[in-house]
Amino acid sequence: MGRIQSNVGLVTGINIEDTVNQLMQQNSIPKTRLEDRNKLLDQERVAVTELMTLVVGVQLTTDQLGLESLFDAVQVNSSNSSLLSATASGSPAPGSYNFTPVRLAQTQQLASSTFASADQQLAAGEIKIHTGGFLDRSVPLEQLNGGAGVSRGFINIRDRSGAVESIDLRFAQTVQDVVDSINAATGIKVAASIDGNRIQLNDLSGSTASNLEVSEVAGGTTAADLGLAGISVASNSATGSTIYELSSTMALRQLRDGRGLDFPSSGDALAVQLRDGSSFNVALSLDSNSASLGQLLDAIETASGGKVDARVASDGQRIEVVDLTSGGSTFSISSPSGDLAAQLGLDNPAAGGTIQGDRLIAGLDDVLLSSLNGGAGFAALGSISITDRSGATDTVDLSSAETVGDLVDLINASSAGITARLNRTRTGLEIADTTGATTSNLIVANADASNSATQLGIDQSVAANTLDSGSLRLQFVSRNTLLSEFNQGQGVSLGTIKITDAAGVSATINLVNKNPTTIGDVLDELNKLGLGINAKINDAGDGILIVDTIGSSGTLTIEDVQGGAAAADLGIAGTEAAITNGGAPGEGIDGSRTFRITTTSSTSLNDLVTSINALTDGPVHASLLNGSGAGGVRILLNSAAAGGLGRVAVDGADIVSFTETSAAQDALVAFGATSTTGGLLISSTNNQFENIVEGLDITINGTSTSPVAVTVTQSEDKVADKIDQFVEQYNKLRDKFEDLTVFNAETNQVGILFGRSSALRVDSTFGRLLSGTFRGAGSIASLGQLGIRLNDQGVPEVVQLGNGVTEDQVLVHDEKSPEPT
Question: What DSSP letter does each residue of 209-231 carry, written as one string?
Answer without folding.
Answer: SS-EEEEESTT--HHHHTT-TT-
